[in-house]
């Protein structure tokens, strides 16, 4: 099995405080090709053509700006995965960041050594937020009519193990947590998820979580 915990990636760090930038750099392994910027305008003026795989932005960059600034950033950097980093914020703030296209919110009270875990997680298509934030986001989105009649029929084709995996996803569990709960490997969890996505015609983990949340 390929080890996805050390995937190389290009990374931009956008933070007004240079000391904070340095702290982030010093706590990341050297698999990242890192460039640092003090603000978004500087980043765009110097790197308009080649956006990185990952961008860390400090939450303060969005506090005094118009409410669309983060969504504009995610649209402009559509090929990059953006992680917001900052002090503890209410669930509503973190949900708003996800809805505008960010892939997670990293609480800077966590050890910076955990930042690598967060970056690798979003690099491989997942999100980095507290479990209650995922539940809150699902709660907000369940009013959206995303479930088709065909998808409901496809439920019958899921195995008991696949149903169990899907239900755990709907509660915000990570692959590691699911593997521990079901006493299986993370590789098996990923295989189950791939099969579920195909059977249910769902594009990603969040869509799956919303689907099963609606069935409760």
TrEMBL record:
<dbReference type="InterPro" id="IPR036388">
    <property type="entry name" value="WH-like_DNA-bd_sf"/>
</dbReference>
<dbReference type="InterPro" id="IPR039420">
    <property type="entry name" value="WalR-like"/>
</dbReference>
<protein>
    <submittedName>
        <fullName>DNA-binding response regulator, LuxR family</fullName>
    </submittedName>
</protein>
<dbReference type="Pfam" id="PF00196">
    <property type="entry name" value="GerE"/>
</dbReference>
<dbReference type="GO" id="GO:0006355">
    <property type="term" value="P:regulation of DNA-templated transcription"/>
</dbReference>
<dbReference type="InterPro" id="IPR016032">
    <property type="entry name" value="Sig_transdc_resp-reg_C-effctor"/>
</dbReference>
<feature type="domain" description="HTH luxR-type">
    <location>
        <begin position="151"/>
        <end position="216"/>
    </location>
</feature>
<dbReference type="InterPro" id="IPR000792">
    <property type="entry name" value="Tscrpt_reg_LuxR_C"/>
</dbReference>
<dbReference type="GO" id="GO:0003677">
    <property type="term" value="F:DNA binding"/>
</dbReference>
<keyword id="KW-0238">DNA-binding</keyword>
